[in-house]
């Protein structure tokens, strides 16, 4: 029976308009080993021509020019808050529960069983032939994965002010758990064969502390100490949008695009560090629906860096102000 290749489920932007928690479910990629420094080479003697060339400054890529905004940042934030239900309606929400499905990967066939005696290195092949054969196997695997059906796994996410979070994901009969109580965090990852509760790493704690509250980056931004500036206008999926730069009190920076017609958040991005590298995480927010007196996105698509594909999060149910005891956000037993 095919198994599923579980992606590193970084919960990048899971309902980003509400809360952005970039905490990895799988292993963080290891930083590449440092290459040995090459021996210094003797500089070639300078000639008038080379000296002139060297003197030229390296041209920096031109920054993308945005169309000017016809509204101030404060006006856009006010209209966005009204479009999403109003400040009083959001302040009345103390807890949230969201449930649905999220992309986890593709089904892959387990490797065929082979005779151990046949797994030795075939010395009759040239080194180049072995490299080409390995490339062909990897290309075939990638083709099979790309054409396979994406596996979706059920999730439940519970949020409580201020910044308490619990996420559960069901995967192949196991329940993965990620909990943050506002100061400390824990994770249980049985799909990696780990049956013991682990504490968040220092990097994960830092990311959790930087996440926004359950109503997002713009609503009540002034009271939260966020600095919001409008950088201009640019299209998002063919529609005019305002691009806002939001700087939290912690210094964490993210961008939010607000649709110029509906004034709903339609895209967010921010830089997150994982595996020793910075990654821009972009989230598209779609399919807004009214829940109680507020509007929330029911479909999100996350993209890391310049990856072509997106990982989808489909929200099926949202509960406002469910009874969530603080014990729900304590270390799992």
Describe the fold and architecture.
The protein has about 325 residues and is α+β, with helices and mostly antiparallel strands. About 15% of the residues lie in helices and about 35% in strands. The protein has a domain at about 5-25 and about 65-110 and about 130-165 and about 210-325: outer membrane lipoprotein receptor (LolB), chain A (Clam). The protein contains six helices and 14 strands. Strands 1, 2, 3, 4, 5, 6, 7, 8, 9, 10, 11, 12, 13 and 14 form a 14-stranded antiparallel beta sheet that branches. The longest helix has 21 residues, at about 125-145. The chain is globular and about 70 Å long.
Short description:
The chain has 333 residues and is of the alpha+beta class. The chain contains six helices and 14 strands. It has a domain at 3-27 and 66-108 and 128-166 and 212-324: outer membrane lipoprotein receptor (LolB), chain A (Clam).
CATH class of the domain at 3-27 and 66-108 and 128-166 and 212-324: Mainly Beta
Q: List how many beta strands DSSP finds.
A: 14
- The CATH architecture of the domain at 3-27 and 66-108 and 128-166 and 212-324 comes to Clam
Helix segment tally: 6
Quote the CATH topology of the domain at 3-27 and 66-108 and 128-166 and 212-324. Answer: outer membrane lipoprotein receptor (LolB), chain A
Q: Low-confidence stretches at least 5 residues in length (pLDDT < 50)?
A: 1-41, 49-55
Q: Into which percentage range does the β-strand content fall?
A: 35-45%
Quaternary state, please? single chain
**Measured distance between first and last alpha carbons:** 32 Å
């Amino acid at each position: 029976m095919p198994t599923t290749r579980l992606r590193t489920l970084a919960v990048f932007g899971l309902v980003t308009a509400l809360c952005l928690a970039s905490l990895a479910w799988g292993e963080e990629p290891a930083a590449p080993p440092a290459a040995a420094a090459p021996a210094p080479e003797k500089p070639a003697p300078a000639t008038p021509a080379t000296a002139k060339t060297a003197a030229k400054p390296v041209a920096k890529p031109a920054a993308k020019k945005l169309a000017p905004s016809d509204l101030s940042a404060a006006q856009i934030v006010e209209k966005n808050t009204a479009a999403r239900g109003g400040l009083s309606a959001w302040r009345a929400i103390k807890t949230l529960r969201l449930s649905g499905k999220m992309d986890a990967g593709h089904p892959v066939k387990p490797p065929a069983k082979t005779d151990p005696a046949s797994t030795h290195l075939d010395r009759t092949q040239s080194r180049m032939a072995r490299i080409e054969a390995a490339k062909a196997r990897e290309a075939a695997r990638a083709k099979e994965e790309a054409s396979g059906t994406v596996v979706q796994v059920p999730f439940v996410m519970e949020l409580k002010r201020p910044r308490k979070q619990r996420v559960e994901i069901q995967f192949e009969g196991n329940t993965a758990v990620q909990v943050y109580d506002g100061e400390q965090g824990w994770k249980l990852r049985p799909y990696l064969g780990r049956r013991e509760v682990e504490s968040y790493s220092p990097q994960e704690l830092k990311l959790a502390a930087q996440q926004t509250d359950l109503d997002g980056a713009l609503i009540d931004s002034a009271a939260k100490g966020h600095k919001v500036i409008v950088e201009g206008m640019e299209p998002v999926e063919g529609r005019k949008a305002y691009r806002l730069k939001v700087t939290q009190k912690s210094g964490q920076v993210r961008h939010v695009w607000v649709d110029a017609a509906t004034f709903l958040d339609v895209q967010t991005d921010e830089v997150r560090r994982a595996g020793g590298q910075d990654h821009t995480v972009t989230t598209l927010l779609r399919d807004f629906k009214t829940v109680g007196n507020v509007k929330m996105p029911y479909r999100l698509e996350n993209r890391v860096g310049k990856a072509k594909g997106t990982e989808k999060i489909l929200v099926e149910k949202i509960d406002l102000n469910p009874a969530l005891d603080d014990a729900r956000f304590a270390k799992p037993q």
